[in-house]
Amino acid sequence: MKIVIALIIFLAACFLGYTLWDQWREVNEQKRAAQEAATGADIDPRKLPGLPPQLEFKLDEAQRGGLARFKAFIDGLKQLKDVKDPRLAWIELDYVVMLSHSNPVEAKKLFWEIKKRTPENSPIYPRIRTLEKTYE
Q1: What is the pTM of this model?
Q2: Separation between Cα atoms, residue 109 and residue 123, nearest integer Å
Q3: Using CB atoms within 10 A of its CB, is residue 70 exposed (0-12), middle (13-18) or buried (19+)?
Q4: What is the rounded CA–CA span in Å between residue 131 and residue 89?
Q5: 82 and 55, same structural domain?
Q6: Peptide bond preceding 86: is omega within 30 degrees of 0, i.e. cis?
Q7: Are residues 2 and 54 in the same domain?
Q8: Are residues 35 and 67 in the same domain?
Q9: CA dihedral in degrees (28, 31, 32, 35; nearest 10)?
Q10: SS (H, E, C) 24-79
């Protein structure tokens, strides 16, 4: 009888340990997901609305083409009616990051223009909040 009771206690302790470990793992996963969402790390810019799919390839080419080519591409995008925020703002933030190495004053100015027109409920606002300290 002592062996049966000891076995039941052992199994109950194992089950309790497993349950606690599983709960701990789940809470950590939720914390990690919340941190990614807060920093904007979980956003796929290609899924943001505001850029026609046929322009994605040209965007990639312009980004690889250097700062002047990327700026010319963005200026051209602003003329199109199909291109709008939040995707346009994300592209401009990419340009701001590229520009900050060569012209930090202009990068700060452009960043604050983007921030002014972007509402806090925008899907790209976490990225703006992350970059904000860099461009103060």
Answers
A1: 0.69
A2: 22
A3: buried
A4: 13
A5: yes
A6: yes
A7: no
A8: no
A9: -160
A10: HHHHHHHHHHHHHHHHCCCCCHHHCCCCCHHHHHHHHHHHHCCHHHHHHHHHHHHH
User: What is the rounded distance in angstroms from the CA atom of residue 22 to the CA atom of residue 28?
Assistant: 10
The one-digit pLDDT tens for each residue of the chain (136 residues) are 888 888 899 988 888 989 889 898 888 887 776 666 555 556 778 788 888 888 888 988 988 988 889 999 999 888 888 888 888 889 999 999 999 889 899 999 999 999 999 888 888 888 888 888 888 7
Torsion of CA 8, 14, 18, 19, to 10 degrees: 40
Which domain range does residue 16 map to? Answer: 1-42
